[in-house]
Amino acid sequence: MIKSNEFYSYNTKELPVGCQYCVRGEKIVLFITGKCPRKCYFCPVSDEKFGKDVTFANEKKVEDFSDVIQEAENMDAKGAGITGGDPLMTLDKTCDFIKKLKQKFGKEFHIHLYTSLNLATEKSLKQLYDAGLDEIRFHFDFDDKTFWKKISLPSKFDWDIGVELPLIPEKEKETKEVIDLIHDKVQFINLNELERADNTLSKLSDMGMEVKETYSYAIKGSLGLGFKLMKYVEDQKYDLAVHLCTAKLKDGIQLTNRIKREGEHNHKAFDIVDDEGLLTRGALYLYGLKPGFDYRKKLLAADKDKYIIKLKPLFDRIKKKFKLSDEDIYLDEEKPRILISRKLVKKKKAYFLGIDLFPAIVTEYPTADQLEIEVDFLN
Q: What is the crossing angle of helices 255-265 and 65-74, to 10°?
């Protein structure tokens, strides 16, 4: 019987190096571009990103490379996982980011990258290798074998090579064909439990694929296929490291550990950080832009500068009245509001209401989007 590891996944040998960093939450997720030469029916990329040349570092939209550095420093990242879309669609940019990350954080900063075989050429792979890429992972198209033969190309370079395959229950035969082809050409294979995505590209529901549990996005039968394939590799005596990556690992371990890490390294002096990395803080909002119905949409559409202009004199007034240091108060320009301690917002709520601010105690993620978990207005 195959037993799970401490991360709720399954592996036949040591985890790939990139995965070792990820399960500890030590890697920044660098979504380099939404452009892609393929349109897979199981693609998890959001409509906001797919097909668009946008870049995100974790949840932060990147306007300049300095945004990547800031996000990496905020979580004390030890490496980066570069994804898309397909990073080879913007190859020069991808290589530039790899070089800059290595220059900033050192050669030991581990970088792995996901790509399709569509754009892989000896020239493009050499560019990635020369830029400093440590590990490359390829996605196969089960329904079109045109590019399968390209899997021999990356072995020309001294890096770790792997293959990532979604565990699509109806594609057992095709998945075995891929394994037969790659077993002596790559070091490892990641078999990923298939999950349904809330986007336009994902057609899994239309194809009759159901989730295995009410509160799960994981597809029924996907994990079972993973066990079959692990047994297949063993029976064939292939010298190939297999990692069966579960939905539970991604959501319950990898993401959770990254959030904890961000909470530990990216919080204000007045924040209360819980065991999960969530931040509890006092917040002061202006009328018209405070958490409530359609708050996220309002934030996207808001003229934030207008709100900051209104908040700045109130910020200065509060700082002076309560003799606060720079570490005791913060003007949040991303979600126009003033942040202070939970203790102060509770103690002086009447004063804040008197100057037309809405005081609240907020618990939220330490990520760039600061997603709210709980908001308690102190009326």
A: 90
Q: What is the pTM of this model?
A: 0.92
Helices and strands, number each (H, E), in the chain: 12, 16
Mean of pLDDT values over 42-56: 95
Helix (H) or strand (E) holding 112: strand 110-116
- For 229, the token pair is 């394939």
Put the strands of the sheet holding 110-116 in their side by side order. Answer: 10-11, 241-245, 188-193, 160-167, 135-139, 110-116, 79-84, 27-33, 56-57, 60-61
Q: How many residues does the chain have?
A: 379
Cα–Cα dist 373/127, whole Å? 43
Question: To which residue do tokens 């949409």 refer?
Answer: 297
Of all residues in the chain, the percent with pLDDT exceeding 70 is 100
**Vertex 150: Cα angle to 148 and 154 (nearest 5):** 130
Q: Tell me the mean pLDDT in the region 249-277.
A: 93
- CA neighbor of 349 nearest in space, from 318, 313, 316, 372: 318
Q: Find the range with the poorest average confidence among 96-110, 196-210, 334-348.
A: 196-210
| Mode of pairing for the β-strands spanning 330-332 and 337-340 | antiparallel
Nearest to 284 by CA among 353, 237, 333, 227: 353
**CA of 171: how far to CAs of 142, 143, 167, 177, 266, in Å?**
8, 9, 8, 10, 43
Distance CA 133, CA 115 (A): 13
- Kindly give, in sequence order, each residue whose CB lies less than 8 Å from that of residue 126, ignoring residues fewer than 6 positions away: 156, 157
DSSP symbol at 216: -
Best CA proximity match to 245, nearest among 7, 3, 1, 2: 7
| Rounded distance between C-alpha atoms, residue 271 and residue 281, angstroms | 5
pLDDT of residue 1 exceeding 90, the answer is: no
What b-and-e string marks burial along 115-134, b requiring 16 or more CB atoms within 10 Å of the CB?
bbbbbbeeebbebbbebbbb
